[in-house]
Each structure stands twice: as C-alpha cells, then as structure tokens.
C-alpha cells in the first residue's frame, strides 16, 4: 500500500533478509524468503486501513489466518517461464495486500463445484513491458488483475442489485480494447468473485441498504447505513453501490406536469453544491488523470484522488462526498471533508471549501 512506512526495526530486519536474497540471485543459488510480512508489526498497519477484511473480495476474515498477499508475486510468475518473480518487492509494503484464503490460494465454489486456482503467483499483463529486475520500471507494466490499492482500479468493478460483481460502466482502456478483454471480468473470474457464497451475502446486504435508505433521513438509520458502507464493513463496495442505485431510482423521473403541484420552497442557504458540481470548473484532462488531494490530520498527511466522476478515491475505493472520504482516510468522525482536502489549481493551493465558494458564492442576504 502506497504511503505506508514500515516500522524501523522491521525495515532493518527485512533489509537484511532482502540483501541475502539479492546475493543469492547474483550467485544463482537458492533464495530464502523469511516471512517477515506475517509479523504483526506490518500486518497491523495494513489491517488498520480497512479492518479485518480481504482487500480483494471484502469478506471479513474471522477465526482464520489473515494472510498478506504480494500483489506482484515474489518468487515466480505463473505462466511466465524463466521469470524469477518480483523478489525485490518481497519486503516492500507497497506490494502487500490483505487477502483471504480463497483469493490467495483458491477453494471458492460455484454451485458446489470447486473453482479456480485463485491469485497465487498469477500476475498476467495485458500490455506494457514486464519488469524482471529491480531496475525495471513497474509503471511500464499494465496488469490484468485489478489492484484493490490502486487509486482507480476499484472503480472498474461494479455490482448489480442481485449481488453479482460486474464490470462498471467505465470505458475500457486501450490495452483492453487491443486484447479484446476486460480487466474486471478477468479479475472476477480469477478470484471467483461471484462464487456461490459471496453472491447471496452481497445480495442480502444490498437489499438491507436499499430498505434503510428509504428511511435515511433519521439519524439512527443513517448511522446504520454509514456502518454498512464504511471502509471496514464487509462488502462495503456493494453496499455503496446499493445506496447509489437507491438514489438513482429515487430521483423523480420527470418534472411535475400539473400546475396544481405545489412548488417546494427552496431555502437558498441550504441549497447544496456537491463534488459533481465542481467538475465543470476543473480541467477535463487533469480530471481524467485524477487530481491529487491532500489533507493533514494529527501530523499525518493523507492523499486521495478526485476522479472525473466527482468521486474521491482513497483506501482503494471511491467515496462520493469529501467528508466520507476524509473520515475514512483519517478514522476520525469529526472532520469536515470540504475543509480537510486541499487541491492545487494553477499553482494555488486551496481547500475544497475555498474552491467551492469561488465558483458558487453563497447567495446575498435578501
Ligand atoms: Zn478474498
């Protein structure tokens, strides 16, 4: 996970082991990977981010070993003969993902039939140049498997109201078009994200969120919804999708046609400007690449990316409001995201609130 710093004592130990691995690679002898990644010193840092759940399938991991997966496999790459594995990333925290046993090693089932070999040491590319040594640039690789820690990959996965993982409506990348395949589809297949256990769990959760959302104006109900879509909740991406589906269906389909319908009174002081409204005032090319937001809380700097859909990506998933994103990033529920997140436009750093007020000044008092 980008931005995580390994504890110094652990880093020293890991460096020693990596030096030994490097020497073995140079000498052409057997490499020994001591499993420092299973130690609480680093695993707890990863668990703090999204709780005890698998970063790939979002299942809570309870009463089972919580494994740390290497996104880029450390000792071999399946189906790439002669590749030594990404051994130089064996002790790099940015390569670690929490994974359940099924996502990491297989065992998921479709309708009673055992499915697939899961992620394991698979790391197929759909384009770019594969890195083979520590000197090679990882950014030149175009991985097939969606990365839960990437700023925009989680956006590519959606869920339908029946609980099935589906590709989202995000346009395909050039590499996908060229290869005639879809990263989301392939990820769903490799990780068996629609196995017979996951779909009913997601489906039930999405029904619950849909029902709760009808009464979401009550504070205690809103709290229940927040708990279900919070980053540490199981299947929170599907729960967030259920909320979005509810809101999309809840909007009036057309303007009222009868003159007898009373016009609702609008209180201009309460009229809301949301993230989507800001998009028209931002550079489309910048938005396409993603605009970096930074925020500081308790001496820690947090980073997020504002995407072209007006969502803030942080902790590997999109959030629809600055405040939910800020609270997810910091773990504090007292932060106003509009004051927390800062962006730089034409060299000027400002908060989202300052940017909003520039473009949407509050109405003058009557
Ligand atoms: Zn999993």
Question: Helices, strands, pairings?
Answer:
Blueprint: H1 8-27, H2 40-50, E1 67-70, E2 96-99, H3 101-105, E3 109-110, E4 113-114, E5 125-128, E6 141-143, E7 157-159, E8 165-167, H4 174-179, H5 183-191, H6 198-214, H7 219-229, H8 236-250, H9 275-278, H10 284-289, E9 291-297, E10 300-306, E11 312-314, E12 317-319, H11 322-330, H12 337-340, E13 342-345, E14 348-351, H13 352-359
Antiparallel strand pairs: 1-2, 3-4, 5-6, 7-8, 9-10, 10-11, 11-12, 13-14
Helix pairs in contact: 6-7, 6-8
Bound molecules: zinc ion.
Fold and architecture overview:
With 366 residues, this protein is of the alpha+beta class. The chain folds into 3 domains: 8-196, no CATH class; 199-249, no CATH class; 272-359. It contains 13 helices and 14 strands. The protein has helices at residues 8-27, 40-50, 101-105, 174-179, 183-191, 198-214, 219-229, 236-250, 275-278, 284-289, 322-330, 337-340, 352-359; strands at residues 67-70, 96-99, 109-110, 113-114, 125-128, 141-143, 157-159, 165-167, 291-297, 300-306, 312-314, 317-319, 342-345, 348-351. A 4-stranded antiparallel sheet has the order 9-10-11-12. Strand 7 and strand 8 form a beta hairpin. Helix 6 (198-214) runs antiparallel to helix 7 and helix 6 crosses helix 8. It is globular and about 75 Å long. Mean pLDDT is 87; it is low at 256-271. The site of zinc ion has 8 residues, from helix 3.
